[in-house]
Amino acid sequence: MTKYWKVDQGLGCETFEPIIEAAMLLRRGETVAFPTETVYGLGADATNTAAVERIFLAKGRPSDNPLIVHIADIEQLSGLIEPASVTSDHRKLMEFFWPGPLTLVLPVKTGGISSLVTAGLTTVGVRIPDHPVALQLLREAKLPIAAPSANSSGRPSPTLASHVREDLDGRIGGIVDGGATGVGVESTVIQLVDGQLYILRPGGVTAEQLQSALPGIQIHEPEREEILDSETPRAPGMKYAHYAPKGFMHIVHGDDTEAVVAWIQSDINAAKARGESTGILTFEERAFRYDADLVIACGSLSQPETIAQELYAALRQFDQEGIHYIAAEGCPETGIGLAIMNRLRKAAGHRLVRV
Ligand code: AMP
Ligand code: MG
Question: Residue 9 Cα, ligand 2 centroid: separation in angstroms?
Fold first, then answer.
C-alpha cells in the first residue's frame, strides 16, 4: 500500500506530522514521491543500495541511467563529492542558482553513495531543490536523497501528485502531495570541463542565465537530434522515446506562422479522414484556429514559462482522451524554450517537420 499525505506548501504545523512520517519511510529504505520546484521526484536514501534499487524497480528505469542526488544544504555536499574538485566557477553557480533547478555533475567521493545512483560512473549529479516541502523532507531525513522524476520510465514527468498516482500507486512507499510543481520541466544538468560549461540536459535554468552568472565562460548546448518526417516511415520504437504520449506525435516547426497553421490543419484533416482520433498541441495565441478532436492550448508564447508549466500535463491529457495522432507546434529555442523543445523532440521520437 502506498501511503498518501496532503500537505500545504505554506508548511503550517499540520504539515509537520506527514513530513516526519515520510522522512521515517526514507530512513527505513522505502521510496517516497515528493514535490520539487521542477517536477515530482521519487526519492530514496542515496547511501542505501537496496533503497535505490526500489526506485529503478518502481519506475522500470534502465539501470544505466544515473540519478540526481538532492541535498538540503551545501554542508551535505562534502559527503558526496571530492571537495578538491569544486572550482570557483562551481561555487559561483551554487551561490547563484541553489536552491534551484540546476544540477552540477561532479566527481563522486568513493564510499559516499551507492554505485547504483551513479550507474557506475565516476561522477554524480547533485542539487538543492527550491521547494519548501522538498527542503523540509530532506532536512528531516538527514540523508542525501536520490530522486529521479516520479513517473514510469518513458512517460511524461509528473507535475501533480495525481500523475504520480497514475503511474506508481501501489509500487512505492508514499506520496507527499504538495500541489502543482512550479517550473514544470526538470533541472538543467551541467558539467564543467577544462573551464568550459557543457549543458548535458537543458532545464529550468536557462543558458542565458548561466552565461550571466559566468560571463566569460564558453557554453556548449546539447545537440538537437532530428529525424525529418519525410525521411522516415512511421515505425514505432525505431527511436527510443521519452516523455512520450501513447499516440503518434510529431512536431511542426517554422518561422511562417500561417504556413505552420495550414500544414497542421491539413495533416490533421488527413488523419481524421483515415479514421484516427486527432490532437493538436498549440499555444493560447493560436488554439482557436484549429479543429481536431482535442486541441490543447499549452501556455502562452508571450510567457514561455507557462508552456513549460503545462507541457507534461498536456501530454498526459492526450493519453487520457485516447488520442492516436498528434501534431505539436514547436516554439522558439531561446530561454526556457530550449528545454521545452528538448522534451518535445524526445516525446515525438525526434520526428520534426519543417515548413
Ligand atoms: P531524471 O532524474 O529522470 O530527471 O533524470 C536525471 C538526468 O540527469 C538524466 O538525464 C541523467 O542522465 C542525468 N544525470 C544524472 N547523473 C548524471 C551524471 N553523473 N552524469 C551525467 N548525467 C547525469
Ligand atoms: Mg525523468
Answer: 23
For range 189-213, the mean pLDDT: 97
The amino acid at residue 226 is: E
pLDDT(236) > 60 = no
Cα(296)–Cα(311) distance, rounded to whole angstroms?
Answer: 10
Is 147:72 a contact under the CB 8 Å cutoff?
no
Q: Is the peptide bond before 99 cis (omega within 30 degrees of 0)?
A: yes
To the nearest whole percent, how much of the chain has pLDDT over 90? Answer: 90
Count Cβ atoms within 10 A of the Cβ of residue 180 and give its class: 0-12 exposed, 13-18 middle, 19 or more buried.
middle
Strands (E) across 81-138 are located at 102-107, 123-127
Report whether 348 contacts 250 (CB < 8 A).
Answer: yes
DSSP-derived 3-state class of residue 51:
helix
Average pLDDT score over residue span 77-105 = 97
Q: Which atom of ligand 1 is nearest to the CA of 147?
A: 2
Please state the atom number of ligand 1 nearest to the C-alpha of residue 67: 15
**Residue 288 Cα to chain centre, angstroms:** 29
Label residue 68 exposed, middle or buried (CB < 10 Å: 0-12, 13-18, 19+).
Answer: buried
Q: What is the helix (H) or strand (E) element at residue 94, kind and residue range?
A: helix 88-97
* pLDDT attached to residue 260: 97
- Going along the chain from its start, the domains and CATH numbers come out as 3-220 (3.90.870.10), 248-354 (3.40.50.11030)
Question: For residue 269, what is its C-alpha cell?
Answer: 484533416
Please report, as a single letter, which amino acid is at residue 65. N
C-alpha grid cell, residue 303: 510567457
121 lines ligand 1 (CB under 6 A): yes
